[in-house]
Amino acid sequence: MEVVGGVPFCIQTLVQAGLVEVPSQYIQPPESQPGSCRESSDSSIPIVDLLHIKTKHFGNVHEELSRACGEWGAFQVINHGVPKQLLDCMRSAGLSFFKEFPEDERDKYRCDLNSAASEGYGSKMLMKEDSVLDWRVYFDHHTLPLSRCNPMRWPDSHPHYRETVMEYSDHMKTLALKLLTLISESLGLPSSCIEEAVGEIFQNITVSFYPSCPQPELTLGLQAHSDMGAITLLIQDEVAGLQVLKDGQWLTVQPLSDAIVVLLGDQTEILSNGRYRSAVHKAITNAKNDRLSVATFHDPAKTTKTFPVAELINESSPPRYREVVYGDYVSSWYTKGPDGKRNIDGLLIHH
Ligand SMILES: O=C(O)CCC(=O)C(=O)O
Ligand SMILES: [Fe+2]
Question: Per the UniProt record, which residue ranges are transmembrane (predicted)?
Fold first, then answer.
């Protein structure tokens, strides 16, 4: 077992061995500890029903999306057209890697620690050496464009692992594009506007596994951040843990087995000139249960330049963000991290 900074790589193994105290590298500074954050239990992110979209009966969908994207940057979709069976199959395939493979088998899939967002099994989100460690292990799959997709690099811990990830990737891309269309329309833009600005979709699928934690009040499964790309689609199991920040309070996203959580990323906030916001979110741990989530990220190519859409700029609404090359945005994130504030705030133009 590899040791990172004196701590075995796999917290899962530590937990199974009966760990009662969290190693110091995992203890969050007091202000980030879940116990010291303001939580709201009486509200959660909106739910948007896409049932009638297929027949072009939009009802209030655009208004609902506009509110959800403007106020939260996060919502759950139901009747999204992705078969429930595929969601369940993706969850069990993901779980099989963490539950059915022993640590030395998982180790064969380790990602490259020296390169950002490399494919495979890992535990650190950022490459900074000094950050507190997340109580999480993950497997990142590169799925789109197909030129970066090689299923032979994925585990076969489940009889249908590779075909499930391929089929899931396909459905997530279709849903992401459908949502980008609706989001464009809800901003009063031509249907294809945001999709065209994002360009060719780069998709990664990350399965995150959060082992139960003996001291959940001191740790985070995943530190607070907003996703860098355009749009993230996430499913979780029945164990709650994802929280979204709204007006200074953390709201827990209720696990709904057939819903898909939508998180707007920083590039969408820039394209919308700040009318829509990216969601600041984090994952907390709990003492009783392991938790699993599958996040599918849809990002622009590294060479794509993002800037506010021209149609949204006028005298009363000047550009609020500087243009950025997506690849530069990503590198600065991996080396500096969010550092307690939103990465995107570095691009703000102060009028
Ligand atoms: O596990 C979760 O619910 C959150 C995962 C996440 O935010 C991420 O992978 O970027
Ligand atoms: Fe995220």
Answer: none
